[in-house]
Amino acid sequence: MNLVVFGEDMYTSAVIESLVKAGHTVSLLVTPDSVTANFKVLNEITGKYGIEFLRTDNINSDMVAEKIREIKPGLIISAHLRKILKKEIYSLAVKGAINIHPSLLPKYRGLSPQHQAIMHGDRESGVTVHFMEAEVDTGDIVLQKKFNIEPNDYILQVQAKMLVIYKTIVTEAIVLLENESFEPVKQNLTAISYFGPLKKNDREIDLSKTMEETYNLIRAVSLPYKGAFYENYILWTAEIAGDAALKEKYPNTGLYYEEAEDRIIIRLKDGVLVSEDFETI
């Protein structure tokens, strides 16, 4: 199948690699000319396979639309695109357009699904391929794949698990779409949740939260992101302390630096977290 891909990063690259290896023709990659785009990895994959690479300030421009009309793709694929494609663009392919979303839709629609799964203490997450519609992340589901989130998984481990799925899920979705008897599944409207992009205050440790909520926050926004913080400390990792003596030593909620041990103690209302991987702001 002849395809046009929109995307910005290594996940986009992984999808393109899988499509080419499956025998599809990727004629064009369109990426927004923005600070979020990883142009190095996109240059590498398009150069490797001789794919036209278009960087543009406006992914919904008449120029982009005209290029797609010339290509006449069977399908348009959005793979880790943070910008919103307009109907005038995503409707130009014969079979329409699909988006790859890193959550089990309709849970965690929006721009921070990977983080939200950890922050909410979920024990599983996944990747969804769905048809694109005017409203973000609302289209019928083509395919979903799940993976487990372990209690000690940080955002980097969760993303690694997602990347493995990205390497196969789109090609498998296309196989389904090529079957004339295939019927996509409508999203469960009773299970919808939506979150926007993470802001600085979303990363701030709130000492009124529980130990588990604080631990989950630290895991969810750690490297390669900016980290959870409290006052002038950024905490990259933490462990739940099983030492009852620490509760007695620090009876009041707060963040304490132990100089002798070079570690941070976070006393919450229901327990203690210890961090040896932190820095000052």
Overall geometric form: elongated
Query: What's the CATH architecture of the largest domain?
Result: 3-Layer(aba) Sandwich
**Weakly predicted, low-confidence segments:** none
Helix-strand string: EHEHEHEHEEHEEHEHEEEHEEEE
Q: And the CATH topology of the largest domain? A: Rossmann fold
- What is the assigned CATH homologous superfamily of the largest domain? Formyl transferase, N-terminal domain
Percent of residues in beta strands?
A: 25-35%
Major beta-sheet overview: 7 strands, mixed
Q: What is the end-to-end distance?
A: 51 Å
- Whole-number mean pLDDT: 96
Per DSSP E runs of 2 or more residues, the count of β-strands stands at 16
Helix-strand layout with pairing:
Blueprint: E1 2-7, H1 10-21, E2 25-32, H2 39-49, E3 52-56, H3 62-71, E4 75-79, H4 87-90, E5 97-101, E6 109-110, H5 113-119, E7 124-131, E8 141-148, H6 155-177, E9 194-195, H7 211-220, E10 228-230, E11 233-235, E12 239-240, H8 244-249, E13 254-258, E14 263-268, E15 271-275, E16 278-280
Parallel strand pairs: 1-2, 1-4, 2-3, 4-5, 6-9
Antiparallel strand pairs: 5-7, 7-8, 10-11, 11-16, 12-15, 13-14, 14-15
Helix pairs in contact: 1-2, 1-6, 5-7
